Batch of 3 targets.
Target 1
Amino acid sequence: MTALTLSTSSAATLRADAVVVGVAKGPKGPVVAPGAEAVDQAFDGKLAAVLETLGASGGEGEATKLPAPSGLKAPVVLAVGLGELPAEDEGFAEEALRRAAGTAARALAGVKKAAFALPVEDAESVAAIGEGAIMGAYSFTSYRGTDGKKETAKADRSAPLAEAAILGGKPRDKAFKAAVERAAAVAGEVNRARDLINIPSNDLFPKSFATEAQTAAKEHGLKVEVLDEKALLKGGFGGIMGVGQGSANPPRLVRVAYTHPKAEKTLALVGKGITYDSGGISLKPAGHNETMKCDMSGAAAVFAAVVAVAKLGLQVNVTGWLALAENMPSGTATRPGDVLKMYSGKTVEVLNTDAEGRLVLADALTRASEENPDAIVDVATLTGAMVLALGERTFGVMANDDAFRAAIHEIAEEVGEQAWPMPLPAELRKTMDSSIADMANMGDRMGGGLVAGLFLKEFVGEGITWAHLDIAGPAFHEKAPYGYTPKGGTGSAVRTLVRLAERTADGDLG
Ligand code: BES
Ligand code: MN
Ligand code: ZN
């Protein structure tokens, strides 16, 4: 992972392979952002003019590489766009810095050390730059052959930027130090979630995911309990078993617990962990199944968030529940029309085996409720309907408590994740009525994301505050990378969950 350091050196004298500067979109052309004064001086004060000649505008996502003039230690200058120049009395938005640092890290793949001379106002800006650099430097290369290239290439373009020195921070200041440590922990865990998502389903299946969780948890002092298929059957987890029974890779329910001796609150996080979603007997057509290894993104986010909380040593208890199953069609698979007896005791008629996420989550929600946490948040790539509603970059937030839904929306915006509150209209519940069972796993197609949310709501324990994040849109990014977002798994919701745990630890919630 990219190492983060804070440096008081000048951008002109720091030994690095490249120096990163910010450029904003001003009313009359590109403007060099604060932090890059020494670099601009080396260009005789003409850096903005040079950039404009090269076609740069300061727009978000731009990256312009220049050979450095004499006077700079680093041989290369990289100018990254920060977007619109903020008003005189306002600084750059944290998300603008995070994205610019991410764009820079992507442009500097293969480079050893870069100095980031971006505008730093406070510890928060340092944190944003650090997070952006680590997340932007992410690459998933475990499945690429080397073809002997590694020995010959000067800069290995598949190797992430090794070190990011952030200038302008105060290395001895407690707040700045903490900001860098937090950035490394959180962004590092976002990258862990991405790895888990990107590993193909032939290598990441319920049992191997559980083993992965056990290994990582040991390293961070977390307590892990795994229910295998025998224990799930015996325990009456009809939802998880019903989804997993068609696969040669049997299901698991993993409980991973972080506890703090002085914690006053307990947060339960529940993740949908369908390691592959073929749709089951209600098979998905070609064109809809190629990226379905991503259907465990909720569980990945939950696990990564619990590890991040442990790394930060937060004064709160956080229990993660990973509901792991592979949804496959076979002679042993659940058929459309079958009725499952859920862990809660409710019976569910499975009208569509492709609506499997809610079935595994329902059991995990009931199980999590038994421990009576102060709040439960589930995270799931649950419905295509949510992608249609909110697009590919925004997750939906539903809840049984208006204040909690608003708090999560606010937290998401604060950490730079796009989210939007969605309702749970009561009248949609009856569309899931079944003619033979307590309910069906499907209702109206219209508002399908909300119907799924209403299904989950029934499995949350009486009186427990609960929110549901449908990350089907942002979990997996298929288009060109931007900012700190790579192709593939994004680690959506990890940063929101960590900040939620911090807020809970601080007693700012409920
Ligand atoms: N895993 C899918 C949802 C999904 C869609 C995730 C696109 C990521 C991208 C989920 O299990 C599913 O198949 N949902 C169905 C539900 C329907 C059958 C009620 C859907 O959304 O079509
Ligand atoms: Mn499905
Ligand atoms: Zn699914």
Target 2
Amino acid sequence: MGTGDPHGQAVAASAKWQSSSASVELPNRRIEEIFACDVFDLRKMRERLPKNTYDDVIRVMENRGKLSSDNAEVIATAMKDWAIERGATHYTHWFQPMTGLTAEKHDSLISPDGQGGVMYRLSGSNLIQGEPDASSFPSGGLRATFEARGYTAWDSTSPAFIVRGKNYATLCIPTAFVSWNGEALDKKTPLLRSIDALDKQATRILKIFGTDEGVKSVGSTLGAEQEYFLIDRNLYFARPDLVSCGRTLFGVIPPKHQQLDDHYFGAIPPRVNAFMAEFEEELFRLGVPVQTRHNEVAPGQYEIAPLFEATNIACDHQAILMDTLKKVAGRFGFVACLHEKPFAGVNGSGKHNNWSISTDTGKNLLDPKGETHTNIQFMTYLCAVIRAVHIHGDLLRATIASASNDHRLGANEAPPAIISIFLGDMLTDLIEQLESGKPQSTIQGGELDLGTFSLPALQRDSGDRNRTSPFAFTGNKFELRAVGSTASVSWPNTVINTIVAESLDEIASSIESKLDSDSSEERRDEVVRAVLSDLIKEHKAIIFNGDNYSDDWQVEAASRGLPNLRSTAEALPALTTEKVESMFAKYKVLSNTELHSRADIFAEKYITEISIEAQQMTVIARTMILPAAMMHQKNMAQTTIATKEAGVDASELKSMLELFSALISEFRTKMDQLEVARVVPESDPVGQCVYCRNEIVPMMEQLRYLGDQLETHIEADLWPMPNYDKLLTLR
Ligand code: ADP
Ligand code: MG
């Protein structure tokens, strides 16, 4: 093997870790000592800021106003002092470009003082605005390279933080990134705009019900659970496909993988547990609240779930979480693999996007409470989500589309490409009652009697979960389960906020237009019920509580008129339909140009990823698998000759050799075909996506099938890469 014996190295690395960990001191730091110690949250800076400035900051944050330049200067100095006390030497405007996760350019906090020494400095204008030389960030045609100016603008509502590593500590200032003429070049700008749109429309509903007292704003909340694989570093780097594509392009599933479900919620291996503890400690330091850690379904697969927060901050925290995950994994000899489908045949990874609507006073507007049938305000918000997802199911599907997520959606492990809503028994019953009049009752879950006095009676939920649904109501929030594990959550939440804002707007207008001089609560509720009843009639086709994996659902969904966009190539055009263009424009979330630039970037990314995979595949086929196969063939031929020479019947060996030789020849033919087909012809982006989907992807699948056949035949010692068995078993 050209890379030495990576598996042996992996075992050695693990053994080294195990022996050194024996003497490691037990962690005894208390969470409250480290939580958010590297976070500069303006809301908590009363002691560091002059009273006037602090009051102004809070006022500005609550009313989404602008800071005066004098105050910016004061804050910049306080932030700089805070950062250098913690050892920071540099600062960066941290942002989320349209592709990739995060971007940063580091500037020094230190400048010459003019007297032969140095001083620390961060001016108000450096805090508020930056101008990264960002001509190489994708803009989807929004900027040509010669007009490359882009600005970063400080998002004062998201806390600044310090990123540390060996020999460095950098102050990171969350920012939005826009072009010279103000067009959004990042994921944060439209997200913030969508939050504003949701705020405005959701507040109208509160006003209708007279429950807006003391509420300054309404926003969405987000908790995004992240699944990932850990792969031993030594093995990872012996797989060019993992390194360049994040997934294995060849590989046979071992006899025992996830069939026994013994990994799911099983005991966490000690090396992994040590990694998780350090990973979480880093997140706590950065103020990212995480809640649970456990094994996932596939061997080597894990999950981390954060506590939910306001969506803007939760999205920043998600990006920090993904960066931190990769960084800390390396310290334990792992690579954290976030790809949606690193291994064929075992479960892939996703991100569960838990979303709800909440007032700034902490009231969850999607919490049904006990006697739900009396809670007409809850039903109004619920119906807004139903309408939004029914009208924009195709957009939601397109929002989560990527080359890597195509491996999950549609396979029987992740929600299918058909978007529908799971409500569960209680809410479905309620919606049915509401459709035909005034709801009279709420189905209760009751108690679970476990049949022994030693165990407590458990409170049962009024409905079971449905893990097959792409968009499921889970108690007091919706869970979009179809987001890919590599994806940023900013974009899906921008879309959810906007489509729900649009529906709330429609509902509010409809109610307002029907209210008359009778201002009693009874009359109001009657009007609301009538509006919601019509809405349910029109949009209930989106509700589906059955098994989303079944074939019957595909047929039924079609008869309900729900789109089934199986691949990214089919889904992406839904981003730029007229209904989407006008919605984004109406709520000022994305202009037409901004929307189209995004669609182009997504298409380009899809085409590039497929092209890289196809090319990488032919390289592995030609330079790794084929030579190993020929060596194996040579060994077989020599054995056949030797057997014959020894006077023993070699006819069996000869036919095995012939079969194997035919397999090689088939493999080589497919490889050559892919080599030709992988060059994407000139066309528009949509045409190129379709070409990738229809021509390249099937050919890659065929070549993989043959390569995997070869793997099952070739002598194990000759196989040029660590196999699945090794990759999936962490020691
Ligand atoms: P479940 O049992 O449905 O998985 P959990 O309480 O474990 O529910 O939460 C799963 C994820 O949902 C967590 O990341 C959590 O922070 C998030 N979550 C819970 N409530 C909300 C909410 N109101 N808004 C957004 N996310 C939420
Ligand atoms: Mg969940």
Target 3
Amino acid sequence: MFKVFSCLVNEHDYGMVAVAALVCLCASLTAFRLYSRMNGARGLARAAWLLFTALVAGSGVWATHFLGMLAYDPGVKTGFTPTGTIMSLMVAVLFMAAGFFAAAANRERDIANQLAGGLLIGLGVGAMHYTGMSSFVTQGVIVWEAATIGASVMLGVAGASAALLLAGDSRGMLRQALGGVTLTLSVCALHFTGMGAITMVPDATIVVPDQLFSGGLMTLAVTSITGLIVLAGLGAVFIESQTTQSALERIRTLANAAYEGIVVVQQGTIKDANAAFCEMAGASLETLVGKPLMDGMLTFDDSRGVHTDGADRREGRMQPIDGGRSIPVEIFARLMDDGLRAETRGLTVLAIRDLRERRSAEEKIRYLAEHDGLTGLPNRNALQARLAATLDRVDASGERLSLVCIDLDNFKEANDLHGHLAGDAVLVETARRLQESVTSPSFAARLGGDEFVIVYVADQDHDQATAAAELAGRLLETLREGVQYEGQELAMAASLGVSLFPDDGRTGEALLANADMALYRAKESGRGAYRFFKREMDESIRERRNLARELRQAIIDEDLVVHYQPQARACDGEICGFEALVRWKHTTRGMIPPIDFIPLAEETGLIVPLGEWVLRKACAEAAQWTKPLSIAVNLSPLQLNQPNLPALVHSILIESGLSPARLELEVTESALFKDYQRALDNLRRLKALGVRIAMDDFGTGFSSLSTLQSFPFDKIKVDKSFVENIHRDARATVIVKAVLGLGRSLDIPVVAEGVETDEQLQFLRGEDCAEVQGYAIGRPAPADTLSAWTHGDAVGFIVTDPAVVIAKLVEAKAPRRRKKAA
Ligand code: C2E
Ligand code: CA
Ligand code: CA
């Protein structure tokens, strides 16, 4: 040891020693940097990196040796033989290649590999050193000391092994630097120990040939070769790191732009994450790295653990570490480890999607789907589901259940009279009162319109019917109280129908249908009351249902007929047109009047195809008439609200060839109120076609004047209920007069319906009524019985019943030209 030390202290040029150490350090650091790249690469690239590593490390060590030798000044002339010098460089590079290759040969990177690599590198440095020494020629005899030689090689082996173990396969600079420094130290240790192993005995007889490499030349050659190689290595590392750096940057930018949280996990701990994940986790990347992911931060809804095929979609929750509310998430996991590259070893990438927005949207949709927008009560769908669930429970527990159907009396009228907003206020208030009347598990729901339902789970101690009757009584009372709206009190009242479980039905559907039936009865019996369902009610309803089915078939089979009732000018009694009135030719029941099936058709929607059929039939028939008489057709409220009505009328006019001016459509006031804007819109379009519009049943609706002003009607038809009372009820007379006055002031002709007597006719004529219609003029009749009026010369009343023969005023006007068309 002392020998080594004294050798270093006494026989070396310190400056040169420092240069040698520096060169060695540079080369070692670069070599480990290159070595780390080699670890990440495969195939040709891996071989290239290995070659680079070996070249840099080998030449570096070799340069260190020779610079060390140049620093060595034994006090006599020295030189180097070229062969030995070059041989030693090759030896160094070869051993380095073998050593680094061995160290990285096994992907699992066990210690044995590192040690094998260290052994090869240590031996390589030793071999290089002693090969190099063999090229050393000096004026003296070198005496070798075997033990120190052994020690020097062992130092080299140990140092190289330590360097490899320290550097590992890390991409981190620190560990690479540790490896580099350790290798430098081991090389220096080997070199100077090796130098300590020689003793120079000067011998002037030995001639140092002049053609040997001299000190100065060697210094220049060694430093420039090494420098170039190290620079080339560094350049390669730089270029590679530049490209991978920008690729990594790109990936990070992409990952951060992703809406999903992306987190890279190795053995359960977080290695990397994107911005979205950090936000979800409520912490910065720095805090997150190294933290366990599955230890409370991320939990799966099920307990299958992480599956890493990307197709595995899982749901779970993210618990932000800043203590925020846990977030519902969707998780996709994929193992990144392809078994080939070291830097992906054991890595799993998890994409985590924040489901909060989706969940809240889902909730909103579900809420909207289950609740009535206006009152917030469960809607029909929700009622069905909740009722079914409640029934199941009640059935099992032996509790009792009753179902109350509630329908507001005169709601429609209030709505029409005070407007939709007032109607809405009434509904909201009704909902509130109903909700207040029951406690969970009983509940209220809105079926639509002014129909509500209460599912009432009665106390077991009470008799069910009594409890339900009590509730119904309470409901009637609370719903009788007026509703305040914009300073006025809106009158309220309701009718109720009650059905009991299980007596009146075991399913929600049956209970609802039966309660509805009872409600229908309550309405019939004068409203403002409740009725319990009774078996007999079932019968009449079933009959209605049958009738609806038959009507549907009748429309298809064309079992309907249209009768025509004449309309005459009041002044001279001349027939100016006909109103089309439908009848149902039932196979077993005979002719059914419209009053018995039009409301049913309206309720079931069958009125739409029915009305279309009547319209088509009436137009086709009227188009055949030789006289251009007008034809009036009734439009039901539902029809008037069909968006395609104008188009339909248009196409029927075209296909029948009827002039639009001959067609008159009769609408009632109530038809307008269903959807005011749409109805008005349709009326305007119809009018634009050239069709006339009559206001039917005038006087039975509401706010009559404003309706008349809202649209330029071509005709007003005074309802027959007033006409028939002209001479019986002073009020009726006043109303008829008022309507006639109204028509005059608005310049709209008025038609009186239901004129049955001569008296009525005279009165109307005296009041300047424009037209009359009724049994006194003619009953509705099939078209073929009317040909004298539609095709022939007849112009006067069509009354055929001798009992009601009245003065045929206009017959005097005839005869005109006979039989123009036979
Ligand atoms: P409406 O439009 O007011 O038709 C007049 C109704 O009064 C007809 O009854 C007619 O037969 C009856 N009538 C006519 N003159 C007299 C009379 O002097 N005294 C009495 N007491 N009644 C008379 P109908 O044919 O039974 O029709 C009843 C209602 O059915 C019609 O009332 C109309 O609202 C509806 N309706 C009839 N046909 C159709 C149709 O094709 N479509 C639609 N939507 N409704 C129709
Ligand atoms: Ca009518
Ligand atoms: Ca009418």
